[in-house]
Amino acid sequence: MSALCLDIAAASARLGLKGPRAADWLASQGFAVPAQANSWNGQYVGGSEAVLIARLGHSEFFLEALDDGALGALAEGLAAEPGGVYPVLREDFALRLSGSGVHDVLAQVCNVDFAGLDLQARPVIMTLMIGVAVLAVPEERSDGRQYRFWCDPTFGPSLSETLGAIVVECGGTITGVAA
Q: Using 50, 70 and 90 to split pLDDT, how confident is the model at 179?
């Protein structure tokens, strides 16, 4: 397993949408829409994940793309949608936590048992971390589990500073935008 690391992710394209026709509209745009609420799918291009699609409820979705182009056309199509699908502003602050010791860090900052999650179900977790509301997506990677977190951008610096201090205390490193 890789060394413990907190990665303060660079800004990527994010899009939120909701409404009674949101799931059908996403499917009509070629996306693999998660069937269950609080679950996610990855849309893959060329063998790597290009877009993460998280279903936050019956009719609300969060999408994140590795590049702006992957969601640009979708956002334009959303603007032309006649009804039943509504944009949601998403300016989330993003973090990734991975490596050995990741569950020790998470146990200190959150009351969710991340180690006990069934990753086959591709869960999306909405919880508090250090008193900050976060959206969490766990992923199984070849080098171990990775957790992706998003929060309101006004709380991002505080959350990353506190998590960073715990990660360093546990022998890990900080990488990314604000490292």
A: very low
Same structural domain, 63 and 95: no
What pLDDT was estimated at residue 22? 94
Domain count, the chain: 2
Domain containing residue 62 = 13-88
State phi, psi for 112 to the nearest 5 degrees: -85, 135
Distance set, CA 151 to CA 35, 46, 63, 74, 176 (Å): 24, 29, 14, 23, 17
CA atoms of 176 and 8, how far apart (whole Å): 5
| Alpha-carbon dihedral 143, 71, 91, 21, rounded to 10 degrees | -110
CA-nearest of 125, 138, 132, 139 to 161 is 132
Residue 171, by phi and psi: left (phi above 0), alpha (psi -120 to 50) or beta? left
Q: Any residues with CB less than 8 A from the CB of 47 and at least 6 apart, and which?
A: none
Query: What is the rounded CA–CA span in Å between residue 130 and residue 158?
Result: 9
Regarding whether 102 and 69 lie in a shared domain, the answer is: no
What pLDDT shows up at residue 79? 75
52 & 100 share domain: no
Helix H or strand E segment including 149: strand 144-151
Question: Looking at per-residue confidence, does 69 or 33 come out higher?
Answer: 33
For the beta sheet containing 144-151, the strands, ordered from the edge strand earlier in sequence to the opposite edge, are 125-129, 132-141, 144-151, 93-98, 5-8, 173-176
